[in-house]
């Protein structure tokens, strides 16, 4: 969930940032600013190099094991459809699933603000435990830190997951190919608009709920498609726009999607209209995009629709046979084409 | 580093905490309050059960792999001898080492407060990268979240490590046996007093520096001792008092140490006098206690002293042939005995 960084691949050189600059909210929003922070500061400092951004990294020496980490800072802690506890399980389970891995174990690390009611902590952890149990992944280790009042906002949760890949499903953000069909497993925009509406008291949250759910079963159902599944990505921070831009860049392909094919629930559309948001940049926590060989697209859709998590799966576009590499375009309802930009990233802080 | 929880073992039942209680600073300090939070709230919520507190958990299905997680919230970010970046590497590498494992891979997850100077972030990450390189462990994946001003205090870092055990060194907190010699690899109290002095402007930090360092080489040097090494533990939060109490409890043995044998640097003693602290409860980040078969104690000490990290290793006590299980006692300089209590936990927040 969100941009991961795997320090491998080709190094790019850029001017270092100047010393009077500071971290902005947008640096954590999963868009262009996040990518710049990674490329210009984090990876150079770690002596790594910018490479494909995958949702989970391979574990050195254990080629069938993958690892993924995420810190959850969503505000508020509780929202329609979920809470920070279930989200912390689903987010990491889904990152593992996007590499074709089933979850083996989770670690859970808490940073708690002094004064948090124990009842809230218990509720969150109960939800976390229930979500892990539903997925069938054990929480094997953890850590708890408490900081003084005002030094954190209630509760942050890190989960790190270890997953195991098996069979021939080895999707990667670099594997999209010209001609691929682009599939989407369900409607977009629910998580981000729900959290924002709850936080800001906008009232939309009576009509909508976060889509937070684990996607490992959906991915397992797709495993018979094996190497025909080129890319899997859950469009979390930065939404579908960020996910497709990352894939187009990392695979050096041109992607085109149909506005009319993208399922946007009515309440999401209304909320986005009011807030001036493009549903394409709103975070999701329970759907995935799949790039598959065109010849198996119908079979893939049928398989996705056979499990509840993919019941509303649709085909939304394709990888163009040719076109500007790294570019994502949208065919609008009136037949025009517009570029889908990588979101800059400042729009929706603390959405996950 | 600090109490880990591995939800296995025998369940204890206690009264649940009442709903108007809140999280206290002491709940995160590694002492009795931390243990109570774990036993009464966290583990029941996760449907786990209280068990031995190990520094790292075994990975299900991969008996040679261990996993450990820690969130670092130390304040200030920079202190004599280290910073939150190097600490985040050493802490997790050491937790893996305490299970006899060499580090295979680290994940790094950042929670950054809006407004943090990029120069500080770069400095911390440079230190983190340097520490990881010195250990020889790759940072394979990560995550960055940014929260608004006032929603976090500058920077928190989670590291999660995967380690591999090999050979016959399989230490565990449950393996201390009557007659064991208790060894300590170096002086105590440096990290906690340094951080506290720096934070509070007490001025001791001109004389002392954190002992933060990786201990994997020291543990590797001890590996020829194999099964004679029963327990390894780095006495971090809660200090030597917490570490020994946890081992005494988990192994159901009585431990006795000699006050005169415990190396307390003069500056640490002065600082503790002034602050009203017992050096036994002050956090360390670069030493370990080892419980070994008495017959190999001299050999173990010689091995420990052969590497720089263990140059000042000493024997500080033993597991009594009989005595009250779970109790730790101190033979004082004047020949009296006093009980070394598990610290309650409120003394030193945000020390790691």
UniProtKB/TrEMBL annotation, chains A, B:
SUPFAM superfamilies to which the protein is assigned, alphabetical: PurM C-terminal domain-like, PurM N-terminal domain-like
Entries under Pfam families matching the protein: AIRS, AIRS_C
InterPro entries (UniProt xref): HypE, PurM-like_C_dom, PurM-like_C_sf, PurM-like_N, PurM-like_N_sf
Sequence ranges assigned to domain PurM-like N-terminal in this UniProt record: 54-163
Ranges where the PurM-like C-terminal domain occurs: 177-324
GO BP terms: protein maturation
Family per similarity comment: Belongs to the HypE family.
PANTHER family: CARBAMOYL DEHYDRATASE HYPE (PTHR30303:SF0), HYDROGENASE ISOENZYMES FORMATION PROTEIN HYPE (PTHR30303)
Name the UniProt record assigns to this protein: Hydrogenase expression/formation protein HypE
Organism: Streptomyces aurantiogriseus
